[in-house]
Amino acid sequence: MNTSFLRSAGHLLLASVLFSATAALPACTTNPEADKPERLSIIGIKHSAPRTPADTLPDPVPSFRLTNQEGKTITNQTFAGKVYITDFFFATCPSICPKMQSEMLRVYKQFEGNPNVLFLSHTIDPAHDSIPVLRDYAERLGIKDASRWHFATAPHDTVFALAHAYMASAQVDKKVAGGFAHSGAFALIDSHRRIRGVYDGMEKSEVDRLIQELPLLLKEEQEEQKVATR
Amino acid sequence: MSRTGLFSRAGLAVAGCVTLLLGLSGCFTERQNEGAKLYATHCASCHGDQGQGLERLIPAVAKTDYIALHRAELPCIVRKGMKGPLTVNGIAYNQVMPGHEDLTDSQITNLLNFLQTNWGNTNQPYTIREASELLGRCNGSDGQ
Question: What is the ipTM of this complex?
Answer without folding.
Answer: 0.72
